[in-house]
Structure formats: C-alpha cells, structure tokens
From TrEMBL:
Residues 235-249 have a biased composition (Polar residues). This is Uncharacterized protein. The chain crosses the membrane at residues 35-62, 121-141, 190-214, 588-612. Residues 655-667 have a biased composition (Basic and acidic residues). It comes from Cladophialophora chaetospira. Residues 235-260, 655-675 are annotated as: Disordered. Keywords: Membrane, Transmembrane, Transmembrane helix.
Amino acid sequence: MDNKKGPTATVEPMEASPAAVEEAVFKTERRLNQAVWTIVGGVALPCIPIIVITVILLYFIFHHQVHLSQGYEELQPLSSEAHQNVTDWISLIRHQGGSAAYYVKFNPSTITTIASWTSRIIPYLSSSVMALVGFFAARHLVLCSKHGDEHGSSLPTPEQLTLLISVLGGSGFGPLRDTILHRYKRKEKLIAPLPAAFSALFIITFLGLIIPFIDSWFGIATKAEVVTQLVEKPNNTSSYGRGLSSSRWPNGPRDNGTSNNYNPTDAWWPSDLYNINGHGAIVTGLIDAQRIIYGTSNTTQIMNYTDAAGVEHLYLADPKQSALEDFRTSTIAISAQCVPMTQLCYFNFDAAQQGHLFNCTHAFSGDLRSAGLNPAASPNDSLDSAPSNVGLAFAANPQLTEAGGEIWMSHIASSYGIPDDLTDGFTYPEIYPTNPLHYGAWATGFPAGDASGFTTFTGDTGIYYDTSLGGIWVFNCSMTVWEVNYTWVNGAVQKFNTTLASKDLSAMLSAPLAWSPYTYGISNSIISAASRAAYTGDNSRKIARTFAREISRAMLALSAFAMDPVPNDLEQDRIAGLSLARIPLVPLYLLIATKAIYVIAVIVLAIGAYCFTHPAETEVVKAQLSVKGLAAAHFNQPGLLQQNVVKQIQDRLDAANSNDKEKSESEPKEEDISFESKGLRHAATAPVQGSAVPPPANAKVGMLPTADGGWEFVLLANGVWNSIKPIVKNLVIQDANTGGMGDVGQVIKAWH
C-alpha cells in the first residue's frame, strides 16, 4: 500500500514589533484623543479669556457698587425729561450710554481698561473657532466621498477647496473677499461645506468687529461723576411742618383755651388774637411775625410753590430745612389773587363831589383815608386821628355785596378799649368762616408822586391819580387756605398735595387782618404790602398780583404763633460730593451679551463637533484642511497615490493568501475590491498617474481611504482618481511666498 503523504501546513511565526502592534491597536483611540484635545483647545482658547475678563469686570463693578437710591421710594428724585427729542436722545445714548447706570467707587480708567482686554485678544481667536468648524467641513467631505456619485457633483472643485482651506484658516476679510469674488466672477455655485464655513467666518469676523466697537462706546460713556447718595433715616428727628397747636387749642381754632383769659361774652375770639383785660386785641408774637414777613426769623419761614396750573402757593416752612435732607411733612398754605376794581368803586360819580370816598357796593364802601369800612361816610367828614393810607375788609361773597360774618357787638366794644368816637358810624370788623376768603382793599398814595411819575399808568383804568393823594386803587381779592402734605427733595418741593382747609381755620388766619384797625402793628403789614406792590409793578394788574402775594405772606406770618412744628413723616439724608465712576447699563450689558453670544456659539460648535462629526475619523481630514497640514500629508509620503490603487489592494490580499499560490491568481476581481461607497468603487478601478498638468475643468476633490486606515485628498476627473500633489505644491508655494510657513517657507521660496 502506497503511503500517501497527507496535506501538511507550515506555520511560520510572524515577528512583529511591539510598537507596530500597539500602533495598530490604539491608532483609533489616539486619533480620538487628539481630536478631543483639538476640540477642547478650540473651546478653551477663545472662551476662557473672554469669560475670565468678563468675570473680573463684573466683580469690580458689583463689589464696589454704590447704591445711590437707598432712600424711600416717595423721596426718590423724579426722572429727568430733558431728553425728549430725537437729537437729544441720540446725544444722550452716544455720550452717556443712556440714563440708566451703575455707580462704582473705583477708578473709571481701570474699569474701561479691563473691559478693553477682550477687544485686544478677539482678533487672534478666530482661527481657534474655525478649527472647530473644520470638523464639520471634514465630515461633510468624507460623507460625500463615501456616498457621492461617480462624477463627484457634491464635491468641491480644486479652486473651492483652496478657498475652503483659506476660510478655515480664519484670517479675517481676505478669505471672505476671495470667496465672494470667486462666486460672482465665475458665476459658480459654491459647493458645501464652503458656504457654511464662509458663514461661520463671517459671523466670527462680525462679532470680532462689533465687540471692540461696543467696547469703545463703553469706554467713552464710562466716566467719573460727582453725585449724591440717598440714605434712609429710620428715626425721624426733625419737625419741618407746621400745624395748629393741638396742645394749646385741643378743640380747634374756636377753642378759647389758654389764648383768652378774658372773654365776658364767651364769644369767638380767634386763637391767634389775644386780649389783655380790656386793652384791645393784639397779636401774640407780633415781633416774630414781622421777622417772618421779612425773612429774618429763626423759627419759621414762608416759602412758595407754583403748581402745574401756574397757581402760586405760599406755605409755612422751617428755616433749618436744606438741600442736604429730604423729607415729607404737612403744613398750611395760601393761594390768592387780586384784580383791580378802581373804576367801579371810585369813577362811578364825579371826583370833585366824591372826594375821599369809595363806593363799590352797598356793603363795601367808605373813606379812602380810613382803615375800615364806613358806609355812612360823607365827603365832609373829617378824621380826628391821622388818616390811614390803606385799608382792608372781608365780605361773604366774591362780589363783595354780602356782609354777615361773626361780629363783635358795639355794646361790648368799649370793654376792649375801643374809643366811642371811633365806633360811631363804623361797621365793626367781621370774621367770615369761609374758604375761600373774599376781601377788598384800597389805598391812597401808592405810588406817591407828581403827575410826571404816572405816565406809565396812562390809560390804565385800574389806578387813578389824584393831585393831593397820589395813586388811588381798589382791589377785589380772594384767598384760599390749604392743608398741604408735601415732599422736599434735593432742596425743592417735588410733590405738593393740597386739601381745602376747614372754614374755621380759614377764618382764624383772616382774624388779624380783619381786626387790623384795632390791632397793634397789623396796619403796618398791610401798608408794607401795598408799598412793595406799588413800586414793583408798572400797571394795575401787576400791582394787584403782588399785593395779593404780600397780603398772603402777612396772613401766614401773623398766624405763626398759633402753629406748632409738625414732625416729618419721612426723612433721608443726602450725602453730596461723592466722586464715583458712572457705568452706563446699555453699553455694559450689550458688551456682555455679544461676548455671551460669542462664547455660546463656540461651545455649541464644540459640542456638535464631538457628537456629530465622528472626530476620531475626521481628525485626519480636518488636519489636512490647511496648507501646512495638506503639505505634511502629501509630501511626507511621496508617490503614495501615484501607485495603482487596485494593485495596492491586491498586494494586501496576496499577503493574506497562501505563499504557494501564483501571483497571477491573485489578480483581484471587481467584487473583491470593496470600498464603502459605490461611487468610489467605480472611480478607483481606473486610476491615472498624477502630474503637474492642470486639472480638467470638471475636476472635483474628494477623499480616499489610505493604507493606514486614514483619508487623503484625491482629484476626481473623468471618473478616475488622481493625486492632488500639484495642487498642494501650488498652495505651499503660495503660502510660502506670503510668509505663512516661517523658516520652512523661506527655504521653499528660495527654491522656486
């Protein structure tokens, strides 16, 4: 039996270096790590400086911020309305950054310097951001190379690849300009991913311009200002208001109380009048009242406020109130007006027969030389005492036709020291509990002088000139008494809320004037009012307006004794003279917002690059999307793609087959050559050798798998792949000529 030899197998150990094995096993992991570090660097390099600078800026602002409006809401200054038209508004925005601002106790130059750090580094950050965009571009090229058609319609042309590499370099306006010129000069549609990369670079460049612009605006608008800080006072310590003394007259103005020790008829004797055992009526505190009128009192002052309707109010205030303290309190105020009625009262009958008499109505008539009304007066009457130059009397209605106030009867007048020769024919003073109050006033000799001084009053029916008496006028007046609650802010009234006072309070204030003929010193106040009015006005209406104001001042001053200080409702101090940095809110937050958009966009790009671009695979392609990377990939492995691609694959198949097989049997079949894409399968079956000949007009650039599992750019023309080394060479030389490759570029430039 023949001993047949069975098939034998020879196993030959394959020696492989540990480094080669490690390289084969961990190549993908290493590429992923490299891609991750690239992504992390693309995020960290632009984002960390911007975030750190912004945090430092906000720290200095909020750590040193001074809150100017810590006072009460009711005592806050009203917003300014000075910037209503468009021109003023634009000027306000441009130079001050708007009206809203933070105030910081810090050097404004330091703050603007910190804010400007971002503007200094932002131009150098675009390349890092575009490196993230490179992952998306690389992924798109890989997918189009895998799944594209044999004509490469979804692949870029060599020119567009050049533009893409330039755009991904993130060098500012140059790539944007070149891309636009290429699009419109050649009328060639831009193939993805060039449009997306162009848009990304445009947005980054725009943000790189707008951030320094806003930063410059922020620097212009941030400046030092001297301001005032408001600080609440939890315990009110001042009493700047005025009100009727409740301790002296707990039952109001009609309460005789401690103000009247002698009142045999228990009649109403107003609380601001006082009688001393039959010696007539006087005003307590008359000396201080005169000081109040002339503004020299240290207890009370009279101030004025004009409302939106143009009505002036005089009110009692405290001399100690100032612009250094804001408060809210209550007080008493008066508004008044007078109109001339001289023609009605004095010119309605012959002056020669009228003499010194005036006759306005049946209830309002008398002698111009007397301080009180006297309807029974005749031209032949003579006065035993020196004549008065001015008089004043109240009535029940605006027309001065009704009398009927509360009267001190004539049978008790002698009890209070009124001489009998002054009571005959006189109408006793009446106190009218009305609000508003109505009164008439008359005067002679205001102004005084000869006829030459009255030329300014020619044709003025409100004033009459008499050769012996001088200027003669009669006014019809009214005044209203108010209870007021007001706020005092920054040395001026801010809110002035009025409530009509009671009729009794109004009557009480009028009592000294009503009793002026029999009250020591009151007539001097009326004469002073007439004099100030006559010599500050050049027509009867101005004289009447000033007289009404001065009589109101006298009326308030004469009632001051009956008033007590009223504690303030609210108080706050004003700390003036603080020099602070004004940080406008509009440019500040606009600057922060643009930085936030920049940072968020970079973070989103990084997340997208890691999650959706298969970074382990696309890192190799992304690295070639630059002149240096492309040169390194193609010149470090010369002639790699000049070999027959089919033969490369066949050689690898041969290495896996038995050594006994013939080389001719290793000729690969078409179905054995399997790329991941059907489009690439057809293109790889008929490769041509690369050359320096310019690519055909229909040439496209795609990606082809390399022997080590990576990807490399190739040229697709007429259905076949070709090396793009000539294209790379042109790009390298061009970049070297512009100094973009450093010392290596200088060597390349010298050889060409």
